[in-house]
Write a structure and sequence with these properties.
Order of helices and strands: HHHHHHH
Largest sheet: none
CATH architecture of one domain: Orthogonal Bundle
CATH superfamily of one domain: Cytochrome c-like domain
Length: 136
């Protein structure tokens, strides 16, 4: 009498390569999830800032460069210099590369960085000033 043996499928152990691939996939998913969360937070902050009616109106206005320069000379040049290179106040050269339009508007109107005074230009004046600041 012969004994029939049933070949059962071998239980395979995950190889190191298989485990490495799983870890890589898990890492990629975690990194993607974190990136999406960061993007959503930044987008949400931007939406809240732009939802400010004053900021919204400034960004919706078309600024006039010459008028912005006049406003800067009248209100800002004493501290920041005629060319925005800084005197008592900080150098504003390339400030638009360091701060967003919303951040620049908030900086001007907040008065939260003494000795800079709070300055509340109307929306058109702020749009004009913003255009000028972007040329520095």
């Amino acid at each position: 009498m012969t004994q029939n043996t049933v070949d059962s499928p071998a239980i395979t152990q995950p190889t190191e390569t298989h485990q490495d691939n799983r870890l890589l996939i898990q890492f990629a998913l975690a990194a993607t999830t974190i990136l999406l969360c960061v993007i959503l937070v930044i987008w949400g902050i931007h939406r809240v800032q732009v939802s400010d009616p004053y900021v919204h109106d400034v960004l919706a206005s078309t600024g006039n460069l010459e008028r912005g320069q006049q406003l800067f000379w009248q209100n800002c040049a004493t501290c920041h210099g005629v060319n925005g290179t800084g005197e008592v106040g900080p150098d504003l050269q390339s400030v638009s590369e360091r701060k967003s339009q919303v951040a620049l508007i908030k900086q001007v109107i907040s008065g939260k960085t003494p000795p800079m005074p709070q300055f509340q230009p109307n929306t058109q004046d702020m749009a004009d000033l913003l255009v000028f600041l972007e040329t520095l």
